[in-house]
Amino acid sequence: MSTEKSNPSFTSKLGLIMAAAGSAVGLGNIWKFPYIAGENGGGAFLIIYLICVLVFGLPLLMTEFLIGKKSGKSAFGAFQAIRNNNRWQWLSWCCMLTAIIIMGFYFVVTGWCFHYAVAAIMHSFKGLDTTAFYAHFSHFVNNGGAMFGYSVLAVALTAGVLWFDVNKGIERLSKILMPLLLLMMVLMAGRVLMLPDSNIGMKFFFQADFSKITPGVVLAAMGQCFFSLSIGMGAIITYGAYMPKTQNITATALQVVVLDTLVAVLAGIIIFPAVFAFGVDPSEGPELVFVVLPGVFEQMSFSWLSSVLFFGLLCIAAVTSTISLMEVAVAFITEASATHKHPLNRHKAVLVVSAIVLVMVVFNVLSLTDKGTWLFFQGKSFFDWADTISANILMPVNAFAMALFVGWWLNKNEVHHEIGKKSGWQHWICASYLPLVRYLIPLAIMAIFLNGLGIL
Ligand code: PHE
């Protein structure tokens, strides 16, 4: 009798879709997307972003699902299992490195969300105006102890979910939280659209001014697309390995892309009308959600309900993403240690990853406070660098390599076997898949890089 436990897997197709959508939908959609769109011209950015989602997002999501499903392995063993050699092992390590860098700052921002959700529930913001919110935010971001405390809470909660087997923890929770999140967002959007002059914000968000588009905007849109869809760090490979064998990759990837984009657009619909209705500058940057929005809520009727709803949904979105980020590392370590003398089981791996993450969190937190001036490089904090390097460099580079891996190192029949030549609408996606991952995506990523760096 084999003593080996069977590979972890999700028990239903819906569970996988909800978990993958949970990974994709996160702070990237609700915190980052609106402020990056606000800084880069609103509607014009939205159009470039949507093009990136179609050209890069969908095919690359299919690529990661394919690698995971075909190999049945985590980011650690997937490339090796498919090619039967370890020439691509560096890519596995790059995925792990990216996951660790992202977790470091992502858990800090998740901590901010927790803090704001708690404050919203206790109604501690009652009557404050935007200036007071600025003061509150900069005080909080300078208070290393509180920030660290909330980040530890986020790490502990995530580790708690991962403690269970994937079908009991991740799958069950995602099936409850994702529909709840969507419902909350639709309610919020409806609420905001009833504000007077909400059409000004809608115009800003949906009307494109193409003079705003520069190479930097295109690079930002591409980075945002990778980050938002969790592409280029093995999160989707890891979930792909848990995919039921009968599940269709194309349809699943499309569903995740649609859900993720829908939530980003809904976030824009919630934030811009509110921001314009109260005369705030939409290009506020990262503070948009934490400073501007609570100020706006305080001026609205039902302010308590609005801010509890909003920060509640921000926490849900963040946690379903931290779960997938941590799962990448947990699955990686479990698999990597399996052939060693002292293999780590899931529980031990969760503890090891939590410890690594906490160390990263300390650096990120410190770099935001007065004590962290030594963590500034070229005028940017460690925290800012972690964000920029992961989304705009590491994820595109990893995704570039994954596209080449499937496009050139797998034979066509293997790819067709997984992606198939489906009929109907899926036919077009399947037919364009290989030309995209072989030529267009690698060339486009390279061009955008060189262009963004001012070389091209
Ligand atoms: N996609 C998540 C978001 O939009 C972030 C994330 C990146 C999660 C990579 C997992 C892996 O917030």
Question: Could you provide a short overview of the structure?
Answer:
The protein is an all-alpha fold.
State the assembly state of the protein chains. Answer: single chain
Shape descriptor reads globular
Strand content: under 5%
Question: Which CATH architecture is right?
Answer: Up-down Bundle
Question: Overview of this structure, please?
Answer:
- With 456 residues, the chain is mainly α.
- Helices cover 75% and strands 1% of the residues.
- It has one domain: Amino acid/polyamine transporter I (Up-down Bundle).
- It has helices at 13-24, 27-39, 43-71, 78-83, 89-121, 130-142, 144-163, 170-193, 198-206, 215-228, 235-241, 249-277, 288-299, 303-337, 346-368, 382-409, 412-419, 425-452; strands spanning 376-377, 380-381.
- Strands 1-2 form a two-stranded antiparallel sheet.
- The site of phenylalanine has 15 residues, from helix 1, helix 2, helix 10 and helix 14.
- Phenylalanine binds next to helix 1, helix 2, helix 10 and helix 14.
List the helices and strands and how they pair.
Elements: H1 13-24, H2 27-39, H3 43-71, H4 78-83, H5 89-121, H6 130-142, H7 144-163, H8 170-193, H9 198-206, H10 215-228, H11 235-241, H12 249-277, H13 288-299, H14 303-337, H15 346-368, E1 376-377, E2 380-381, H16 382-409, H17 412-419, H18 425-452
Antiparallel strand pairs: 1-2
Helix pairs in contact: 1-8, 1-11, 1-12, 1-14, 2-10, 2-12, 3-10, 3-11, 3-12, 3-16, 3-18, 5-7, 5-14, 5-15, 5-16, 6-13, 7-14, 7-15, 8-12, 8-14, 9-12, 10-16, 10-18, 13-14, 14-15, 16-18
The chain binds phenylalanine.
The site of phenylalanine has 15 residues, from helix 1, helix 2, helix 10 and helix 14.
